[in-house]
Amino acid sequence: MPPPAPQTRIRRRNTLAILDAALDVFSERGFGGATLDQIAQQAGLSKPNLLYYFPSKQAIHASLLSGLMKTWLDPLRMLDPAGEPVEEIVAYVLRKLEMSRRLPRESRLFANEILQGAPRIQDQIYGDLRSLVDEKAGLIQIWQERGRLAPLDAHHMIFSIWATTQHYADFDVQVRGILGPDRDAHFADAATFLAGLYRAALTPAR
Fold it and tell me: I need a labelling partner for 52 at 20 to 30 A (CA). Which of 90, 107, 199, 200 fits?
């Protein structure tokens, strides 16, 4: 069987256009509410043309999710055992917040998948995600045992970081409705607030 032909420039361009359009549609409507017609229209392609690149809605969604899981795990992987514990965790908080600022559609895509019971990424959740969280929770517990962090449950600390940072992507409409339309200012204020909150919570009592 001959090797697959290399992607042409037009094929790459159309594939990226479809994935970008699908990210818009899936993040707004969820998997169940999205249709191939909506994705094709958003991408500026006909539905038959879209089906030349992806055989189904499921295939497009799977392609988006497979790339998203690596992106989602990278900030936690960067937690450095050799670093200063409080500052390492605060840096992780700020990386997650910056991800919400830069990748709000991806955050909503992930949230929609989780709210539906994660039928298409359960293997990753019970596999790579769980293993990485357990590993970093173990590191946090070591820091706590050495008196370098306040004694807080490590897994729930990580969950709280996800909640406080991804809120600004997943509930963007609510944030702007309360604080006004200046999204950049909201993220700058959130960074200051969250850094202070976690430093205060994590610094061990003297």
Answer: 107
Write out the two tokens for 133.
């969280």
Distance from C-alpha of 44 to C-alpha of 13, rounded to nearest angstrom: 12
* Domains in the chain with CATH codes: 1-55 (1.10.10.60), 62-202 (1.10.357.10)
Q: Per-residue pLDDT tens for 2-13?
A: 444 456 888 899
In this prediction, residue 5 carries a pLDDT of 47
pTM of the model: 0.87
48-57: long-range pairs with CB below 8 Å, 24+ = 49/14, 50/18, 53/11, 53/14, 53/15, 53/18, 54/18, 57/31
Q: What CA–CA distance (Å, rounded) separates 47 from 2?
A: 29
